[in-house]
Every structure is written in C-alpha cells, then in structure tokens.
Design a protein that fits this description.
- Helices cover 14% and strands 26% of the residues.
- The two termini are 20 Å apart.
- The protein is α+β, with helices and mostly antiparallel strands.
Length: 208
C-alpha cells in the first residue's frame, strides 16, 4: 500500500471500528461520528465516538518498513528492488544486505509520506463501491480475452500480484479489496461485514 500511495492510486483507507465495552453499534453518523446503543441499558444511546484515525484537516505521518544506512540515511522496503536508486543516493545497499526494520519502529524523521485527512465516515464493509475499492489502491491490467471472448480478470491490490499472472487477479476491484481485507484481518473477516471507519485523505507534497 505504500507503493499505492507513492503512485497516487490510494486516497482512501478503511479501519475496523472497535466498540467500547458494553456498547453495541447501532446508530451512526456518516460524517464520522458513531452514536452507539448501550446494550446494558435497554438501548439507551451512549456518548458519541469520533473517528480515532484523524479529523478533516489533521495530518498523519506514514510508517513503513525501513533501514538506516551507515550514513544515517533512510531507505525503504517499498522501493526495492526496482526503485531503490531513484532517490539519487550513493551506495544504495543491495536488497540482500539490508536488515529491514518493521514500520512500528520508524522514527518521525524517517517518514517520507504525510497525509491530510479530507473526510471521515462510518459504514458497513460491504458498502464499499467499485470506485472506492479502486481508491483503496486496486490496480487493473488488461490481459486480453480468455475463453469464449470473455475478458480475463485483471484487478489486484498490487502490481506484484498482476506480474504473477491472471490466476492472482480478480474480476473486480471490490473482490481484490476483499481478499486484501481477509489477509490483514483474518480469514472470513470480509464475510462478517463489520462496521468500519472510512478515512479519505490526500498525500501532501514532500516539503510538508
């Protein structure tokens, strides 16, 4: 997904809504505020829950897998192998020589991507449209025509999947996003159709 951000394909993300203890999600506001039902008080409304992933106008910095070189320069796993030299650095380490550190350990100074939140809302996972699945970073490749003149599937969530052939691609961006959701959140998590935060953002220029 870092590559999707860098390539301008990803402008939306979805995250699970995590209910507070004792609340059931029942009422919600599309502008990014949940009014939950109190399961212990016969359906009385509780306190509003606002989106924990930012409000419009706020900025978020992106963490990603990285490595700090001996020259105290950051290099990024998402750049390897093809784009590692595009940054103009000298003595870029070979991929096999890099000891990648997980994104959770990235210091703020090493982050190269800043996002500005445009809007937040609440919806069921299955409410995602084909257009929004594309805004989640899905990418398409026309593989030509298959049996009986039908177009072969060409949607995936990364260029690497497309490069592995049509068997790794699906008929729609929505299906491809569903596969990614299951990979991140666990098998059959798509089928449970949970409540999710929908966060729309824009990637700020590097000088930000």
């Amino acid at each position: 997904m870092v590559r999707a951000l860098l390539g301008g394909r990803k402008t939306v993300t979805r995250r699970l809504v995590k209910p507070q203890r004792g609340w059931k999600l029942g009422w919600y506001d599309k502008q990014g505020v949940i009014v939950p039902v109190n399961a212990d008080r016969h359906g009385d409304p509780g306190d509003d829950i606002t989106c924990p992933y930012g409000q419009p106008g706020e900025r978020l910095w992106v963490r990603e897998a990285f490595h700090i070189t001996s020259a105290n320069e950051a290099v990024y796993r998402a750049d390897y192998p093809g784009n590692a030299t595009a940054r103009g650095m000298e003595n870029i380490p070979a991929e096999q020589d890099v000891r990648w550190r997980p994104s959770i350990h990235m210091p703020r100074w090493a982050s190269r991507l800043t996002l500005e939140v445009v809007s937040t809302s609440v919806e069921r996972l299955h409410d995602i449209t084909e257009g929004d699945a594309q805004a989640e970073g899905a990418v398409f490749r026309d593989f030509g025509r298959g049996n009986y003149g039908r177009q072969r599937p060409g949607w995936a969530m990364s260029v690497e999947q497309l490069d592995r052939g049509t068997e790794h691609c699906l008929d729609t961006a929505r299906f491809a996003f569903g596969n990614l959701w299951n990979a991140i959140n666990g098998e059959n998590s798509w089928l449970s159709n949970p409540w999710v935060w929908r966060v729309e953002f824009r990637v700020l220029p590097a000088e930000w």
